[in-house]
Amino acid sequence: MEYFLGIDYPTLWYLVIGLLFSGYAILEGFDFGAGAWHLFFQKDLSRRIAINAIAPVWDANQVWLVIGGGALFAGFPVMYATMLSAMGQFNNLMQQV
């Protein structure tokens, strides 16, 4: 088995993918939280402040998700294929409802 920095490759990929998806979840939680608070603000100025607070990082959140998907494909292609096909089947099922 090959090693990089004393860690075997599957473990290293697991850590990288976990870091990427954790970064996505944390930053997306920030967006969802600002959006949820936005509903309770009465003044337009307060709403604009909430929206402007997330504006600089809004697009960056999806980058974490895309890079995490690419890392998942590079590190564990069978898992990637299984997850994507399952999500496609779920999407088809939901469209029929």
From TrEMBL:
Could you tell me one molecular function GO term of this UniProt entry?
electron transfer activity
What keywords does the record list, in alphabetical order? Cell membrane, Membrane, Transmembrane, Transmembrane helix
- Protein's GO biological process: aerobic electron transport chain
Q: Does the keyword Cell membrane apply?
A: yes
Q: Where in the cell does this protein reside?
A: Cell membrane
Q: Name one GO cellular component term.
A: plasma membrane
Q: Which PANTHER family match?
A: CYTOCHROME BD2 SUBUNIT II
**What protein name applies here?**
Cytochrome d oxidase, subunit II (CydB)
